[in-house]
Amino acid sequence: MSLRHALLALLTAEPMTGYDLVKYFDGTIANMWSAPHSQIYPELRRMEADGLIDVRVVPRGERAQKREYAVNENGVAALRTWQQELADYQPERDVYRLRSAHFELSTYDAARRQLTEHRNHYMKLLTDTRQFVADIEARRVPLLQQRLKQRPEGEHEAIIAFKLFAFRGEITKAEAEIAWAQEGLDLLDDLEQRGAPLFGEEPARDPWSLGPS
Amino acid sequence: MSLRHALLALLTAEPMTGYDLVKYFDGTIANMWSAPHSQIYPELRRMEADGLIDVRVVPRGERAQKREYAVNENGVAALRTWQQELADYQPERDVYRLRSAHFELSTYDAARRQLTEHRNHYMKLLTDTRQFVADIEARRVPLLQQRLKQRPEGEHEAIIAFKLFAFRGEITKAEAEIAWAQEGLDLLDDLEQRGAPLFGEEPARDPWSLGPS
DNA sequence: GTAGTCATGTAAGAGGTTACATGATTAG
DNA sequence: CTAATCATGTAACCTCTTACATGACTAC
Question: For B115, which residue in chain A has the nearest alpha carbon?
Answer without folding.
Answer: A86
